[in-house]
Design goal:
By secondary structure, this protein is α+β, with helices and mostly antiparallel strands. The chain has 5 helices and 2 strands.
Length: 186
């Protein structure tokens, strides 16, 4: 499945992420996401292994159903199952945030202007070094997306993807805020 970042498919995936997070946010929540051309990167919080497994399974099914519906197709959607690993230190979490939010910059074939990826949760991230959170100014996007209109009640907010754990909310900041031009380490 290619072009998950298209103007028709990305909003559908974002809606699936939002609904999955709102469904049982105390047990499972998406904290950061980045939709690439043919896959999705996530940083999630879960109350335990069972909640993680159930949340990821439900999210994968939800995305597949929504995208198959919008494309009027049936059948398998994901080529592989999800891969995950527990993050235990502030540095690991910081590196994961950079990896998820800057992944489009890593995979692009053409240089991108400064700014954040519009196909990610970067617009709600409050840890940018370049744009202080208290300024109230949204970070600039490095693309100009033209998304289709959707239900105002289904528009995500910063609260929807707000971290609840100390590591994802505060701990990673011990290693410094993140620059918009920062790239994931190889």
């Amino acid at each position: 499945m290619g072009q998950l970042r298209s103007q028709f498919i990305f909003p559908t995936i974002q809606l699936a992420l939002l609904r999955a997070t709102r469904r049982a946010s105390e047990q499972f929540r998406v904290v950061h996401f980045s939709v690439q051309h043919n896959h999705v990167h996530l940083l999630v919080e879960a109350s335990d292994r069972r909640a993680l497994s159930s949340g990821m399974s439900g999210l994968a099914i939800r995305i597949a159903r929504y995208v198959n519906d919008i494309l009027s197709r049936r059948g398998g959607f994901w080529a592989e199952r999800w891969h995950g690993r527990a993050l235990n230190t502030p540095l690991e979490v910081r590196q994961a945030i950079v990896y998820v939010l800057a992944n489009a910059r890593k995979h692009t074939r053409v240089p991108l202007r400064a700014g954040v990826d519009p196909c990610s949760s970067a617009r709600w991230f409050d840890g940018w070094r370049d744009v202080p959170a208290e300024s109230g100014v949204a970070p600039p996007f490095f693309q100009a997306p033209q998304w289709r209109d959707s239900d105002p009640n289904e528009q995500p907010t910063s609260d929807d993807f707000a971290a609840r754990t100390w590591l994802c909310r505060v701990g990673w900041r011990r290693h410094g805020l993140i620059a918009m031009a920062e790239m994931p380490k190889r």
